[in-house]
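Structure tokens please, single chain.
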Amino acid sequence: MKYLSMLLLAWLTAFQAGQDIYICKNAKINMYSSAPIEDIEANSAGAVSVYKASTGELSFSLPIRSLHFEKSLMEEHFNENYMESDKYPKASFKGKIQSPPDVSKDGTYPVNVTGELEVHGIKQTRTIKGEIKVNGGVISMTSEFIVKCADHKIDIPQIVFHHIAENIRIRVAATYAPYKN
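Here you go.
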């Protein structure tokens, strides 16, 4: 938690905190892998996000070990063999929403966010589709996208190839509150 607090403080400093800064300290991440022999799913409510509405700047950070699996052995293998969580403790995204919506008006807005996705120490420029909903001043964001293991040098040994998909579906859901000094 100390790590997340320090990260949040760094982001807020970088964003030059103002009235249009929104934070989410418990963004939900769902990871799903469908393979011929077995489906694998993990969930986290430990991601942190900062959104600057006036510029569309958006950042997410996910502690890898906050992803939890149904089977503890899957979680252990995920952290030790694939994600190398001790070496690469977080995944992150930092980007900018193209044509950010006016968050003072209720509505549902499809958005595209372009930025850098870093997973397993490998950065990749991505444009990710999502949706922003504004309802009574509450801002929520959702997105669904694919992460290819090969793009981030996550090796899948041949012996477990039929257990783990090469493409992992990621779902993100975050509800933001205005940042208060």
